[in-house]
Amino acid sequence: MRGNYFLFAAATGFGIAVAISSHRTMAVTGALIVFSYLSIKNKSLFLLLALVLTGAGAAAWAYVVDGQNETMLHKEVDTIHGQVDDVLEMDGDRVSFFLQLAEGKERVQVFARVVDEEALPAFADLSPGHECTIAGEMRTPRPARNFNAFDYQTFLYEQQVHWTFHHVQGEDDMTCRASTDTGTTSVKQWRHTGIRFIEDVFPGEIQGLAMALLFGERSHMEAETLEAYQDLGIVHLLAISGLHVGLVSGFLFFFFIRLGISRERACELLLIILPLYALLAGAAPSVLRAVLMSCSVLLCIRFRVPLHPVDGISFAFIGLLLYNPYMLFHAGFQLSFAIAFTLIASAAIFTRAKTRFRQFMLVSILAQVVSFPLIVYHFHTYSLLSLPLNIAFVPVVSVVILPAVWVLFLLSILVPFLSSVWLLLLEKMVALFHAVITYIHQHSGLILVFGQASGVWVIVMTVLVILAAILFEKGRTSFVYAAMFMIAVAAFQYFYPYFDSQLRVTFIDVGQGDSILIELPYHRGVYLIDGGGAITFPQEDWQEQEQLPDPGRQTVVPYLQSLGISHLDKVIVTHGDYDHYGGLFAVVEELKVDTVLYPHTDIENPEVGRFLMHAQDQGAQLTFVHEGMGWSVDAFAFHILHPTNEGGGESDNDQSIVIDAHLYGMRWLFTGDLEEEGEKRLIKDYPELSADMLKAGHHGSDTSTIPSFVAHLSPMAAMISAGENNRYNHPHPDVMQTLEEAGVQIFRTDEQGAVRFYYQDRSWHEETMIDEE
């Protein structure tokens, strides 16, 4: 069986997927096909039985673990007591951390808001191991509120966290004290101390990078820089993985040998140190994989037992999944093992390369090809510059930056005065490095948007990658045909939206704001009406957050990319309120926009002018529109009813663009923040105007959606876009009463999340992200 334990690792993965994945049928079918083929190939019914039993055992284990993943708490709990479990995240007046409760094994995600600047030092001093008693409010974690969006509730569930606890700092409602450290807590405390040391000693430009490379902590990376790493496909440079563990292991082994310690004792010491290093580095899947594999190798060296590298990674895979079955669904886990296994299994390809440079090129190309299906599946985009950037930057990070960060970190502790000059030099180097990455990210335009891929597509692509690699290893030119077929399958995913015959209108949940996406069949027209925008209020300097909420970057752009949308024909900015145009900064930066429509009115707000100039700088054509203008595509027509050519009204809201859209026999009236004066003007000037679907003006405020307007339009349904628990108490009870008395069906983003309407089988259908109870 030497070298074949990967079959049992695969069986373990299939079994866990069957037990706790939503793709059970696909997992069962895939497992039976693969294992039956292998058994027939090896002429071994015993092998098939062993694999089925392994998968069944893994499924049973995962089922038990998932069944025990329950909470003992309830919503009425208003005070919790436990131990801080990890490094705190602080941003302005916001603090978050995990609390391991004193009773039971349950953890709770704590969010605290500091209301007094004098209390900040007390929070900053909190570290893993501190015992805290906190008063506040227990809440269920927020589920995904938009289609294809990140599900925070599931993310916490897979960490066996079922509640978030919300605390507003007061005088006597939170008390903490240091406690006796246990073994694991001590290591977490060291990690906390190391991160705080970097924060205090290292220059600002390299703090985030140093924390990521040394302790696996990315929260201090600048948002723009981190986004560039992610979009360009080089974010793995910030992840602690095999390279880092290899450097640490190699250095320590050489150091121990130079001290006169025997190889056996050196291996034993590393078997103790490496697991501690995994905890110090944040225990991410890539770290755990690398440490487990290193420990397997060290055990074999120590006891002189031969170990096939494929078996080593298989044991690590099985061990981690038995420890935590939910890791199987972690993108980092999947990418780490897929790339590592492929590189190990393809060793014969690399040995044929005559030079180190050719080996490095082959490794880089194979890693990119193998990771491609998983990257598209999880992130919906892929950068064409990923391969050349990895070839260019991996040596820089691995040979220069990473060793320099390690050396300067140790020097800063042992001989501070020697490190200061070198830290400044490293800061200049990292600043240049990040400037190059950011510039490429902003100007390359070589990021392909594939949309959300299905599990079937990932499996097909993976099979083709494996087939192409096997044929290439055997020196057969037919691998070219496999590669071409792989490109064809990738192209199918990329161009799929242009074969989609469905028409969709989606009201995106952007909180207290508006954002509406209209997709015509076959993408003959893709229009975005507004993009949300988080309104901020005056704060003191100490309260200001570095990572401000941005619905455009965090919600609208990811949703559009999940649909395979990289190009918008029109972006309609209904008027100059930030909660309508603020998120569009990210939209015009990340997507190609042909035309931006803005009402034909005077622009008095300089921030609106800044956005319109920014959109032009990004290549969009700016068009000022008024009543009488419009456009049509095939049988779909869009008429602009407001504002008038002289201006829309006295208030900014009453200058909103109003669009009367005719889509498959259904009339839609999109009103922006139109208020009473504008509604009365439409009643007067358009006596025959009607609407099947009304987008209620101004988020359901009592300044809009007056009874006479509703009676005039006689809509079947109305859509209210408002933020959950918003401070304005939108929608207003009077508006709800008006709509209910008129017999109008009401949809609300604050209660139902995103709402999507689609035309299929000659009729309209709707779906909401959150089902009403």
Structure description:
The protein is of the alpha/beta class and 773 residues long. Among the domains are: 6-68; 79-180, OB fold (Dihydrolipoamide Acetyltransferase, E2P), CATH 2.40.50; 500-537 and 545-768, Metallo-beta-lactamase, Chain A (4-Layer Sandwich), CATH 3.60.15. It contains 27 helices and 25 strands. Strands 1, 2, 3, 4, 5, 6, 7 and 8 form an eight-stranded mixed β-sheet that branches. An eight-stranded mixed β-sheet has the order 16-15-14-13-12-11-24-25, covered by helices on one side. The protein has a seven-stranded mixed β-sheet with strand order 17-18-19-20-21-22-23. Strand 22 (717-720), helix 26 and strand 23 form a beta-alpha-beta unit. It is globular and about 95 Å long. The model has no long low-confidence stretch (mean pLDDT 89). It holds the Pfam family DUF4131. One of its GO terms (biological process) is establishment of competence for transformation. It is a multi-pass membrane protein. The chain crosses the membrane at residues 6-38, 45-64, 234-257, 269-288, 327-348, 360-379, 391-414, 421-440, 446-472, 479-499.
Could you list some keywords that capture this structure?
773 residues; alpha/beta; OB fold (Dihydrolipoamide Acetyltransferase, E2P); Metallo-beta-lactamase, Chain A; eight-stranded mixed beta sheet; 49% helix; globular
What is the secondary structure topology, with strand pairs?
Layout: H1 6-20, H2 24-42, H3 45-68, E1 79-84, E2 89-91, E3 94-101, E4 107-113, H4 120-124, E5 131-135, E6 137-139, H5 152-157, E7 161-168, E8 174-177, H6 183-201, H7 204-215, H8 223-231, H9 242-258, H10 263-280, H11 285-303, H12 309-323, H13 331-345, H14 347-351, H15 356-379, E9 381-383, H16 386-414, H17 416-443, E10 447-449, H18 455-473, H19 479-495, E11 503-507, E12 516-519, E13 526-529, H20 551-562, E14 567-572, H21 578-581, H22 584-590, E15 592-599, H23 606-617, E16 621-625, E17 630-633, E18 636-642, E19 658-663, E20 666-670, H24 676-685, E21 693-695, H25 707-713, E22 717-720, H26 733-741, E23 745-748, H27 749-752, E24 755-760, E25 763-768
Parallel strand pairs: 4-7, 13-14, 14-15, 15-16, 20-21, 21-22, 22-23
Antiparallel strand pairs: 1-3, 1-5, 2-3, 3-4, 5-8, 6-7, 9-10, 11-12, 11-24, 12-13, 17-18, 18-19, 19-20, 24-25
Main location: membrane
Pfam family, one: Competence
Domain Metallo-beta-lactamase: 512-724
